[in-house]
Each structure stands twice: as C-alpha cells, then as structure tokens.
C-alpha cells in the first residue's frame, strides 16, 4: 500500500474560446489525452441535465486512474463571490459547464491507499481546480496561450479533498463490469447515495481496466465508453448493450484478445507491444500500446487473432480489414508538412491570400461588366424595324391575278 500523488486535469470553455483542455498532467502523451477524452466528452452528454445533477466519473487503464466531476461552473463557486456571474458564463451569456478531476499514475502490485471520496453534491474538493481557469479566462485565439494547455505536477491532495481508505479485502461491494469481463455491455444501477458509494469503492478497488459514471439524469447513455452507470430513472439493476461503432468495438475486443495471448505465452513487454500492434492492424484499428501484467485474463477470444492461431479469418473479412487499414493509413497521412511560423508571418500570409482573392474577384466582376456593356451596345446599333428585300423575279401568275408587291408602309391596297 502506498499513498498516491495526484495531478489536476481540467476540460472546459473560457470566456472567448471553445471547449479544450485547460490543464493536463505534465507527462500526458497524445495517446493518453485521446484515451481520457473519450470518457470526459461522454460525461458532457445531454449537458442540459447537469443542473443540480453533477456527474461523478472514475476510469482507469493500466497506466492511470482519473476521478472527476462534470458539473455547472456555478456549482464550483461560492455564492457572494464577485466572479460568480462573470466566470460562470461565456461571451454570449451562456451558462458554462466543466470537467475537473485528478489523475494518478498506477504501478504494478501497488494498490491505491488514499482515494477521493464520493460526496454527492458537495464538491469542495474540486473547487480549487477551477482556479486554473482564471489564468486563461480572457485568452483569445491569436494568443500563444490558447494553443497549449497548462501542465500540472503530481503532488499530495490538499485538505479540502475528502479521502477514503480502499480496502481490497472487502467482498461485499457490488461486482462491477470491466473491460476484461463484458466490454460490449453496460451494467446499470438505480441512483442512490448508498449505491453510488459502494460502486465508487468497487471501481477504486478494481485492479483491471474499468469505468464508472454516477448520477446520470434520465436514461442510460448507451453510446458511451462507460461500462457502469447509475441512472436516476431506474429502479433496479439491468444489463444493456453498448452501441459502439465497429471501429471502437474491434479496438476493445482486439485488446482483450491480445492480452489473453500475451499472458498465455508469457511474452515480455517489448514483444507484447509488437504483437498488439500487429494483431490490431489486421482489423484496421490504430495500434494500442498497453500491457496488463499480472492481471487475470478470462477465456475471451478477440476478433483479431494472428494468422498462426487456430481461429482463421474468412477471405471476405480479410479483404474488408485490408480496405479499412488502407483507409486508416490515408486518414493518418498528413496532407501538408507542418511548419512553425511566428504570429506576424501567419498574419502576413493570410493577408496576402485575402488580397490575391480580392484581385481575382475584381477581375471576374470587370469581365462580366464588359460583356454586359457589349450586349447593350449591340442591341442599340441594330434598326428597330427591318424591311425585307423583295425579289421581283419571284412573281408568279395565279388564275389571271397578279400579286401586287407593296411595302409595309403603303396604306392604299390595289389588287388588280
């Protein structure tokens, strides 16, 4: 048992700029941010229901455990503060919501001793995190600070955070779902303070990848990565399907299949990572670099088995996988090399492009105007009434009558 150090993670919107990461741990990679984003964005689903219903979330993989709250900004500010009305709305007057949380790294064979407790609507332990927003509250898109999030360091939690002791010997807590159990199912419970506390403890105790979202108003969020949820409009326990796209489902099941093989073969970390990348390329899924040493792996067969395995993939599936893999490579291939330019250079380049575009548009307008003038000129140059020329040699005799040729301006008519 060891005490954990925690780093801040904040995702929200400032006064001028749209939602983005305000603060992330200093050692987070792009892959870590992508993993965390799937869960954080899922907690903002149907944000209109966040009023008086802050959503608590806990999700972990082999490297990190994140605990946090998604709520309205005004729930994190004390009434009477001058900044309540200012920092609780954006420049359009819309009320803001935010995700604030803590991240701790996980180590093999070490359980978490001090863990943030579930405190329902009492969010005092998360209020200091929103102070990170003050540093970038008035930043605009052309400011250098708008491009990169602030970096947080791991340290002990302050006294405002209520902690619980995670007892790994307790067996009376609920059996929650995990990625190695039923990754395509959602376990749902009724939302109550007692139930939420037990599930929070169970998720903290769980030694494998799992996820939990508490206090969801209305109904189950079926298209989210959370394997365990508590719902306000639910009376008992239910198991429902997770509606994920084929890409996400293959990614999760492929990872489960990889762990089973890696554990059975006893492959070292480096070999296990290479096997993971190779096995996931079969189904056109981005590589997942992760290992789960010492974890109990159930008898689950992944959808992406190596070619030497006993389970063979049909020709049709293999062709489909190849097509998906090529599409994924084309998607990841950058169209243009990235160049680093200073702000004056960027402004100068954009101004030049705008000036060139203006000249092209002016040339088009000039050409169209000239054509219109020429058309009007040609119409005025032509006579208003054209008198046809009469060929006298074409006169014919018809029953003794001779046709009298006359001009259109002749008034008197003579037929003989």
Q: Would you identify the regions where 5 or more consecutive residues have pLDDT less than 50?
A: 255-315, 331-337, 392-401
Strand content is 15-25%
Q: What structural class is derived from the secondary structure elements?
A: alpha+beta
Report the biggest beta sheet as strand number plus sense, adding barrel if it closes: 10 strands, mixed
- Using only C-alpha atoms, the radius of gyration works out to 36 Å
Number of helices: 7
Instruction: Measure the end-to-end span.
Output: 131 Å
Overall pLDDT metric: 74
Principal-axis shape: elongated
* Helical coverage, percent range: 25-40%
Sheet with the most strands: spatial strand order: 7-2-1-5-4-3-10-11-9-12
User: How many E strands?
Assistant: 14
Order of helices and strands: EEHEEHEEEEEHEEEHHHHEE
Provide a concise account of the structure shown.
By secondary structure, this protein is of the alpha+beta class. 29% of the residues lie in helices and 17% in strands. It is elongated, with a radius of gyration of 36 Å.
